[in-house]
Specification:
Elements: H1 17-28, E1 31-36, H2 42-55, E2 62-66, H3 68-81, E3 90-92, H4 98-102, E4 109-113, H5 117-120, E5 124-127, E6 133-136, H6 139-145, E7 149-153, H7 164-170, E8 178-183, H8 194-202, H9 211-218, E9 219-221, E10 228-230, H10 234-242, E11 246-249, E12 258-266, H11 270-288, H12 294-309, E13 311-313, H13 316-322, E14 331-333, H14 337-348, E15 354-357, H15 361-371, E16 377-378, H16 385-396, E17 402-405, H17 407-410, E18 423-426, H18 433-441, E19 452-460, H19 464-492
Parallel strand pairs: 1-8, 1-11, 2-4, 2-7, 3-4, 7-8, 12-19, 15-17, 15-18, 16-17, 18-19
Antiparallel strand pairs: 5-6, 9-10, 13-14
C-alpha cells in the first residue's frame, strides 16, 4: 500500500457546529475521549484537530490504532475525501512492506490494527507458574520510532485489562504527549469496561491505577466470582469522575431515521423444544447448586442459543440427547422454524434490501440452503477488504436484496450501508450490546434516505432468545444513563 496518496480531492470540509466543538475539545485536552455516535464524523473531527496541531508544529508522528477494515478504508477515505486534509500523509502498517518501507517512512499518520500491536511493540510473552501471561515490550526500540500522539479508534478494544493488547500498550502510553480515544459505545456491556478505556488515555487519573481498586470502590461481588454489581450510588460517582475526560454527542444533533422494532416470536417444534428444555433445566439446576463456572455457563448458553436458531454443534452431551449413533458430522440440524420465518419475512418485504445478522457457521449454511447458496455474506474471516468494498458498492446500488453479516465483522469499519435498505434482521440474538448497537447504526445513520429503520428480532418463544432481548434493553438503558450524564455536564459548561 502506498503511504501517501495525492488525488483530485472533491471538496473542502465544512464542519458543523457540533464538530467544531469536538475539535476544540480535542485541542484543549491531551487526554480525551470522544463518545460520538456513528455518522457524526468523528474521523473528520480527529483529522481536523490533528491538522491544526501539525500546522502549529505541536505533533510529528501520529499512531492510530483501529480495526483492520477501518485502517484500510475509513481513515484513508476521509483523508482523500476532503481538500483540508490533503497535506496529511499516511501509512497503513499492514502487509509485507510494513517493517522497512512503511514504518520508517516520513508519513504524518501511521495506521495499525489491534492485532498488529504485538508486532509494532515487539511484544514478548511468558506464562507464569500461576498461569498468567506476562508481557514485555522493547521500550528502547519503541522510543526510537518517535510516536508522540495516540488515537484509538474504537476505544472499547481496551476494555479488557487482562488482554495482551492492554498489557502491552500500558507500558508505552507514557511516551505519548497526547492520547485520544473514539467510540460510540463506551459502556455497551457495563461500566466495568470503562476502567481499561480510560487508563489508556490518562494512566489512571480518572479511576485510579489499578482495576482491583476500581472494583473495590464501585462494585460488590455478585452471585458468582465473575459477576460484579454496582454499589449504591456508584453509577452516579462514576459518571462524575468521567465527565472531564469525555465529550458525548448523540444522533439527536442530526436528522436520523426513526427506529422501529418488530419482535417475531417463533414456536419451536416439539422435539427441538424437548432437547432445549433438557439443556436449560440442567443449567438451572447447576446454577442453584452453585456448580456453574463462567466456562460451563457460557457453553450451556451457547448450546441453548444454537438450538433456538435451528442447529447445534455436536459433542458427547448433545449426541446423547439426540440419540445419534456416533460423531459423523460437525453439527446437526434441529429445526427449520427460524429459517422459514426469515424467508417469510423477506418475501413479505417484497424486495426491500435486508441485512441479516447471523452468529454460527451452521446458521450461515442453513440460511443459504434456504435462500440460495449465492446469497452474499460478510463473515468474520475469508472476505478481503477489496471484496468487502465490492459488496458494499453492490448493496448501495440496490443489486443485493439480502446481505448476510456476522456482527463482529460488520459492526465496525463498514460505512455506506445506509444508502440502500432500511431493514435489519437479527436471526441470532447476541449478548454483546456494542455489536448489536453498532451493526444497526451501519444502516441507521446520517445520509439515509429512509424515514424509518426497522429492526426485526427473530426469537424462539420461551427460550434464551427472549432473555437476551431483555438483557440488551437493560444494557441500552445503562449506556443511555451514562450518555445523559455526560450530555448534561457538557451543556452546563
Amino acid at each position: 500500500m502506498t503511504s501517501t496518496l495525492f488525488k483530485q480531492f472533491s471538496k473542502p470540509w465544512t464542519p458543523r457546529r457540533y464538530q467544531k466543538k469536538a475539535v476544540k475539545f480535542l485541542l484543549e485536552h491531551a487526554a480525551a475521549a470522544l463518545f460520538l455516535d456513528p455518522g457524526l464524523g468523528k474521523t473528520a473531527v480527529t483529522l481536523g484537530a490533528l491538522k491544526i496541531l501539525k500546522e502549529c508544529g505541536l505533533i510529528d508522528r501520529v499512531l492510530i490504532v483501529a480495526p483492520l477494515r477501518v485502517c484500510h478504508s475509513v481513515w484513508p477515505g476521509e483523508i482523500n475525501k476532503w481538500t483540508d486534509f490533503a497535506g496529511l500523509s499516511y501509512a497503513v502498517l499492514h502487509g509485507p512492506a510494513k517493517d522497512d518501507l512503511l514504518l520508517h517512512s516520513d508519513a504524518d499518520i501511521f495506521l495499525v490494527n489491534f492485532e498488529g500491536l504485538e508486532w509494532l511493540l515487539n511484544v514478548e510473552k511468558r506464562r507464569t507458574k500461576s498461569g498468567k501471561i506476562q508481557v514485555r515490550v522493547d521500550i528502547e526500540r519503541w522510543r526510537k520510532l518517535g510516536f508522540d500522539t495516540l488515537v484509538v479508534d474504537e476505544l472499547t478494544a481496551f476494555k479488557n485489562t487482562n488482554s495482551i493488547r492492554f498489557k502491552a500498550i500500558k507500558q508505552v502510553i507514557g511516551t505519548f504527549r497526547r492520547r485520544w480515544g473514539l467510540t460510540g459505545t463506551p459502556a455497551a456491556n457495563g461500566l466495568m469496561g470503562l476502567f481499561g478505556q480510560c487508563y489508556v488515555l490518562d494512566e489512571g487519573r480518572t479511576f485510579g491505577r489499578y482495576i482491583t481498586h476500581f472494583r473495590r470502590e464501585y462494585f460488590d461481588r455478585g452471585y458468582s466470582d465473575y459477576d460484579w454489581l454496582l454499589k449504591p450510588g456508584a453509577e452516579e460517582r462514576i459518571y462524575e469522575r468521567l465527565k472531564p475526560l469525555a465529550l458525548r454527542m448523540g444522533d439527536d444533533l442530526i436528522d436520523m431515521p426513526k427506529l422501529v422494532e418488530n419482535n417475531i416470536l417463533i414456536e419451536l417444534p416439539q422435539k427441538a423444544m424437548s432437547v432445549y428444555t433438557t439443556l436449560e433445566d440442567k443449567l438451572l439446576v447447576e446454577l442453584e447448586n452453585g456448580k456453574v463456572t463462567a466456562g460451563t455457563a457460557a457453553s450451556a448458553s451457547i448450546k441453548c442459543r444454537q438450538i433456538a436458531n435451528g442447529g447445534v454443534y455436536l459433542d458427547d452431551e448433545v449426541e446423547a440427547l439426540l440419540k445419534l449413533p456416533g460423531k459423523s458430522r460437525e453439527w446437526a440440524k434441529m429445526h427449520d422454524a427460524k429459517v422459514d420465518a426469515l424467508a417469510g419475512l423477506i418475501e413479505e418485504l417484497q424486495g426491500s434490501p435486508v441485512l441479516v445478522a447471523y452468529e454460527f457457521q451452521h446458521d450461515l449454511e442453513r440460511i443459504k440452503a434456504k435462500l440460495g447458496k449465492s446469497t452474499p455474506h460478510l463473515g468474520r474471516s475469508g472476505v478481503k477488504a477489496r471484496e468487502t468494498a465490492k459488496l458494499i458498492a453492490r448493496w448501495n446500488n440496490g443489486d443485493i436484496p439480502v446481505l448476510l453479516v456476522h456482527p463482529a465483522a460488520a459492526a465496525h469499519g463498514l460505512d455506506g450501508l445506509q444508502h440502500r435498505g432500511n431493514h435489519v434482521v437479527w436471526f441470532s440474538m447476541t449478548w454483546d450490546y456494542e455489536l448489536y448497537d453498532q451493526l444497526i447504526r451501519r444502516v441507521r445513520r446520517s445520509g439515509s434516505k429512509a424515514t424509518r429503520v426497522y429492526v426485526h428480532h427473530l426469537m424462539a418463544k420461551d427460550t434464551i432468545d427472549e432473555a437476551i432481548f431483555h438483557a440488551l434493553k437493560s444494557k441500552a438503558r445503562g449506556q443511555r444513563a451514562l450518555f445523559n450524564a455526560l450530555k448534561n455536564y457538557a451543556g452546563a459548561k
